[in-house]
Amino acid sequence: MNSNGASTVPSAAEATRPPRRTIAGVAALLFLVIYVVFFPATYGIEDESNIISLATALGHGTVFLDRAGIESGRDLPVLGHRISKFSPFHAALLAPAVATSWRLAFLVTAGFVLLGAWIVVRMLEREGLSSDWALLYLVNPGLLYYSRTLLSMVPASVMALFGVYLLFRSRPRPFAGALALGAAALLHIWLAPVALVIAGSWWVERGRTSWRETAAPSTVSRTR
After folding, report:
1. What is the pTM of this model?
2. Strand 81-83 with 76-78, pairing
3. Who's near 45: CB < 8 A, 6+ residues apart?
4. What does each C-alpha distance from 196 to 83, 166, 173, 189, 201 come to in angstroms?
5. How many Å apart are CA 21 and CA 80, to the nearest integer?
6. 20 to 30 Å CA-CA from 102: which of 46, 167, 181, 210?
7. pLDDT tens digits, 42-59
């Protein structure tokens, strides 16, 4: 049964056969190969430079850029120090890669793209749809553009998608879903309204489902 209550039970032959993920798998592999062959040479905007600066500062054990000896043109004064306006949680994701070789940080973004593809495939199969539709995710122009940046949009969006995956299912996992949506908001503050809309939609749908389950027995008893 999918999230809408419709039966998606496969036939006996289908149940013994693993789901076909050929197109989705090939598309993901091509994305990875092309990404490595045309690996980003550098960042494109000042925001990415500031994120790297914050990741470097975190590698030195501080969020204050001046304590790490970093000068940035768009940092903010806090408690007599300078701090980045970008998410420290996103910078923390990049910090291990930046400490090794800063260009490896692009692999973090690419990894989240592939994680998002896996989530889309699982959601499609859960709804009884072909995983081939995941191709539309992997050729999305906005996703492909942000996949070659160090901005937090891809990780935050994928965590929001993960929250949808955890909540809108026959057996919701509200705690894990809340953590995923919270992570999305912490990675990118502008995902906070999106996370609230997702959580609110699930809460309303949960209430409707509970009402239908409660009303069904009473309706049956009145018709007898």
Report:
1. 0.83
2. antiparallel
3. 149
4. 27, 15, 16, 12, 8
5. 55
6. 181
7. 888 889 999 999 999 999
154 CA to centre of own chain: 7
Tokens, residue 180:
């995923």
Neighbours of 95 (CB within 10 A): 21
- Dist. CA 85–CA 24, nearest whole Å: 37
Angle (nearest 5°) at CA 163 between 185 and 111: 80
HEC letters along the chain: CCCCCCCCCCCHHHHCCCCCCHHHHHHHHHHHHHHHHCCCCCCCCHHHHHHHHHHHHHHCCCCECHHHCCCCCCCEEECCEEECCCCHHHHHHHHHHHHHCHHHHHHHHHHHHHHHHHHHHHHHHHCCCCHHHHHHHHCCHHHHHHCCCCCCHHHHHHHHHHHHHHHCCCCCCHHHHHHHHHHHHHHCHHHHHHHHHHHHHHHHHHHHHHHHHHHHHHHHHHHC
- 88-100 and 174-187 helices, crossing angle to 10°: 70
CA-CA distance, 113 to 97, in Å (whole number)?
17
Q: What type of residue is 55? A: A
Q: Which two tokens stand for residue 157?
A: 């969006």
